[in-house]
TrEMBL record, chains A, B, C:
It is a multi-pass membrane protein. Residues 9-81, 98-169 form the Glycine transporter domain. Keywords: Cell membrane, Membrane, Transmembrane, Transmembrane helix. It comes from Haloferax elongans ATCC BAA-1513. The lineage of its organism: Archaea, Methanobacteriati, Methanobacteriota, Stenosarchaea group, Halobacteria. Pfam families: Gly_transporter (PF03458). This is Glycine transporter domain-containing protein. One of its GO terms (cellular component) is plasma membrane.
Length: 204, 204, 204
C-alpha cells in the first residue's frame, strides 16, 4: 500500500493548486468558463492519471469521486481569482505560485507511488518528475503551447532534485511523511528560486 | 463482462462515424491520402484505446482485428465523400453529423465499460466523456489545432449530460440496452441542438 | 517471455538512435541544453512506454534503470554531434539516418512484444507501427509541429511493411532473431529509399 497519510495530503494540495493554475492558464489563453473548467480539471488530474497508468492501475481519478471533487473546488476558487486579478495572468505570482505548489506536491505523490509499485530508484525519480510535470504539459499541449517543461530549464529540474532528496531520505530511514515532505519542500523552493533569480542553463 | 450487444452496436457505429469525421478533418487540413487514413483511424480508435488503458486492459484495437477493419471501412467511405463534397469540409453537415454520432456512440461505450469495470458513478460519467471526446481531441492535437473540447462549450457538455442519463436509467433498473441507447440519443440531440442554435456559455 | 536477445539488441539500438534524433530535433527547434536532453529522452522512451502501456504492463523505462541510461548516452552523443554539425539540422543525413534506425529498431521491438502479449496479427503490425512512430510523434507534438507520421506518407508505411515481413517470417517458422532482424532491415531500407527518391502518395 501507498503510505496513505502523506499521499492523501500531497494529493489534495496538488489537486487544488493545479486546478487553480490550469484554470488561470485557460483564462490567459482566452477560453470561456467551460474551457477554464476543463483545462483546470485536466491539469489537476492529468499528472496523477499518467502516473497511475504507468504503474498499471486504474487511475484514482476514475476509481473514486474524491479527486474530481477536489479539482472542481479548485476550479471554483480560480474563477473567483480570475475576477479579482483582471488582465494578464501568465506571469502573475498567483499563477506561478500555485503552479509551483502543484509541481511540488505531485512530484511527491509520484515518488510515493513509485516506491510502492517497486520501480527502480531511477524509476522513482522519473515517475515523480512525470507526475509533477504531466498535468501542466498536457494543458499546454491542449492550448497549443510548447510545454513549459521544454521551455524552462528549471521546471523539470526541481522535480528531479526533489525526487533525489526523496530517495536519500528513504535511504537513511527517515520516518513516514518525511521523505515526501522534504521532496515537496525542495521542489517548491528550487522552483521559486529559479523563477526569482531567472536561472537558466546555457544553450548547447 | 460488458453487456455485449449494446457495446458492439455502439462500438461499430462510433468507429464508422469517427473514421469518417477524422478523415474529413484530415482532408480539411490539407493532408494527403495517407494522412487522411492515419487521422481517420486515430480518430476512430483513439477514444476507445484511451478508455481501455484507463480501466487497465489491453485495448480492443490491438487484441482484435475487428475495430481496425471497421475503421478502415469508414476511411474508405470518407474518401468517396471527400470527392463528392468539394471544398470546405470543416463546417459541412456531413462532418458535424458524423462527428456528433461518434461522440454519442463512444460516450455510451465508455459508460458501459465504466460500469463493467466497477468505477465510481463520477467515474462512469468521466470515462464516457473521455471516450467520447478522446479520438477527436487526439486528432486535433496531431494537426496542431486546439481541441474542439476546449473551443466549444457544448462538445463535452452533451457527453456529461448523456453520462448522467445513462446512470439514471441504470438506477431505475432499465433493461439491457436502454441506458446506452438513451445516453447516445441524448448526446446526439444535445450536440446537434447546440450546433443548430449556437449555444454558448458566458466568458468568465 | 519476449525472446530476450533480439529484443535487447533492437531496444538498445533504438534507444540510442532515437535519443540522438530527438536531441537533434530539439536543437533544430532552438531549445537549450535542458530541452535537448528532455526531448532526446522523451523521443527515446516514448514509443516503448506507449507500447508497454498498450499491452498492459509497467513500462521498462520505469521498471529498470537500463533504458534511461542508454537514452542519456544517446543525448550525450547528440550534444557532441550538434557542436560538429553547425546550422540546420532538420534535413541533415545524421538526423534522417538516426531517425530511420530508431524507427526500424522500435518497430521490431513492438512486433516482438505484440507476439509475446498474444495480440492479433493485425495487432502485431499496429503495435510495431505505434512503437516505431510513437517517440517521434510525441516529440513533434511537444515542440508544436504536426507529427512527421501525418506529413510524410512513408514514415508509418515502412513500419507497416516491416511488421508484415515480421509476421511472414514468423509464419514460415524462421529461427529466433530472423523475424525482428528482417523487419528492422526492411523498415530502414524502405524509409531511406522513400527519403532518397521522395516517394509520395497522391492527394485524395
Amino acid at each position: 500500500m501507498v503510505d496513505l497519510a502523506p499521499f492523501a495530503v500531497m494529493n489534495v494540495v496538488g489537486l487544488l493548486a493545479f486546478a487553480v493554475a490550469g484554470s488561470l492558464k485557460a483564462a490567459d489563453a482566452g477560453l470561456d468558463v467551460f474551457g477554464v473548467a476543463v483545462l483546470g480539471v485536466v491539469t489537476a488530474l492529468g499528472g496523477g492519471t499518467t502516473r497511475d497508468i504507468l504503474v498499471d492501475r486504474v487511475p484514482a481519478s476514475l476509481a473514486t469521486t474524491g479527486d474530481m471533487s477536489v479539482a472542481l473546488v479548485g476550479v471554483g476558487l480560480a474563477i473567483v481569482l480570475i475576477h479579482m486579478l483582471q488582465g494578464r495572468v501568465r506571469d502573475h505570482p498567483a499563477f506561478l505560485t500555485s503552479d509551483a505548489i502543484g509541481l511540488a506536491a505531485f512530484t511527491a505523490t509520484g515518488a510515493l507511488v513509485g516506491v510502492e509499485a517497486g520501480v527502480s530508484p531511477f524509476g522513482v525519480v522519473i515517475l515523480g518528475t512525470i507526475t509533477g510535470v504531466g498535468g501542466g504539459s498536457i494543458a499546454d499541449i491542449l492550448i497549443g503551447r510548447v510545454p513549459v517543461v521544454l521551455r524552462d530549464d528549471f521546471y523539470a529540474t526541481p522535480a528531479v532534485v526533489g525526487g533525489l532528496a526523496f530517495l536519500a531520505a528513504q535511504w537513511v530511514g527517515a520516518p513516514t511523511g518525511i521523505p515526501s515532505g522534504l521532496c515537496a519542500a525542495i521542489v517548491f523552493l528550487v522552483r521559486m528560486a529559479a523563477l526569482r533569480y531567472e536561472w537558466r542553463l546555457p544553450r548547447v
